[in-house]
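To illustrate the input format used throughout this study, we show a single complete record. The first block contains the structure-token representation of the backbone; no residue identities are included at this stage. The design step must infer an amino acid for every position from geometry alone.
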């Protein structure tokens, strides 16, 4: 089951993001943005399989997580299992929000949120404020809102 997280900043920026993974095993190609169903055996046996559309390597583990693209000024959702970390819109480098360079620890911020690829807690958003894609300040907060299938 996936988590729904609300990202919110004082500047007015707001975005609902869908992380973790759904029930259906899907792979997502970062190159052609194609998503396709994968068989459970493929996911266990192989770390990457070729995209049926473009032939590039796609990770079979799924762990959707938020990343920042500073060029596009937005939060994008990428598969944490898939390297390299590239923005599908501009092709530039993106940074996952679990990187400390995007965090300012704050005890007054909401509780930590974590989820995982193979084990719960692989990807962690600690109790902190984060770099806002819109205003660039360390004043963005993530809050767990609910679940998706
Ligand atoms: Zn592809
Ligand atoms: Zn971008
Ligand atoms: Zn902001």
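Output of the design step:
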């Amino acid at each position: 089951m996936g988590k729904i997280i609300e990202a919110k900043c004082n500047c007015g920026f707001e975005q609902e993001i869908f992380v973790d993974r759904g029930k259906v095993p899907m792979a997502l190609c970062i190159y052609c943005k194609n998503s396709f169903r994968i068989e459970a055996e493929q996911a266990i046996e192989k770390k990457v399989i070729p995209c049926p559309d473009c032939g590039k390597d796609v990770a079979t583990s799924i762990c959707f997580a938020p990343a920042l693209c500073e060029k596009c000024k937005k939060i994008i959702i990428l598969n944490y299992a898939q390297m390299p970390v590239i923005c599908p819109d501009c092709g530039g480098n993106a940074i996952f929000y679990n990187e400390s360079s995007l965090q300012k620890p704050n005890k007054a911020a909401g509780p930590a949120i974590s989820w995982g690829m193979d084990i719960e807690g692989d990807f962690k958003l600690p109790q902190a404020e984060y770099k806002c894609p819109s205003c660039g300040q360390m004043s963005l907060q993530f809050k767990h809102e609910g679940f998706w299938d």
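Structural context for interpreting the output: The two ends are 5 Å apart (CA to CA). Residues 2-22+62-148 form one domain.
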